[in-house]
UniProtKB/TrEMBL annotation:
Signal peptide residues on this chain, from the entry's feature table: 1-21
Entry-linked Pfam families: PilP
Protein's organism: Neiella litorisoli
UniProt KW keywords: Signal
Keyword flag Signal: yes
Protein name in UniProt: Pilus assembly protein PilP
Length: 171
């Protein structure tokens, strides 16, 4: 019995020989046939250097002289500027185009405006409240509109007042 088991084991082990050369060759041929060939790279155009030759204006590659900037700011300290230390209202993070007047409420003495921001929230505002991106201050609230005095930068460190309004939109 022991001899039969050994012969059977020897036959089984002989059948596990590594004769897969033809299979390996088939797989290699198949992979070679379907492997895409890379396209050739396009020709790189030759770079031609063109020097910057403007003499009249300041070069954009050099930082501006700090003394000139400080002099310009120092010259315009007597002009209108917004209050930097006042408490901000949540409506100051929205542009006026993103705020819609939805109505009013109140008494004859005090009228409050109801506005809806682009976020969908409804806010109650009154005279001297701020809204909009340009430091807009509410100067009047009527049944049909809210008058706003904005401060827009002029570009030289000063600000200019500009009137704007939100009109009632029904619906």
């Amino acid at each position: 019995m022991r001899l039969v088991a050994m012969l059977l084991a020897a036959c089984l082990l002989a059948g596990c020989g590594d004769d897969l050369a033809d299979v390996k060759q088939f797989v290699q041929n198949t992979q070679d046939a379907y492997r895409p060939k890379p396209e050739p790279l396009p020709e790189v155009p030759e770079f031609t250097h063109i020097p910057y030759t403007a003499k009249v204006v300041r070069s954009p590659f050099v930082e501006p002289v700090p003394e000139l900037i400080e002099v310009q700011v120092a010259q315009r300290k007597d002009c209108l500027t917004p209050q930097p230390d006042r408490q901000r209202h949540p409506l100051e993070s929205f542009a006026l185009d993103d705020i819609t007047m939805r109505g009013t409420m109140g008494t004859d003495k005090q009228l409050y405006g109801l506005v809806q921001a682009d976020s969908g929230s409804i806010y109650q505002i009154q005279i001297n409240d701020y809204l909009g991106l340009f430091h807009g201050r509410v100067v009047a609230v009527t049944a049909r509109q809210i008058l706003i005095e904005e401060m827009v930068p002029e570009g030289d460190g000063c600000w200019a007042k500009r009137m704007n309004k939100l009109e009632l939109i029904s619906g």
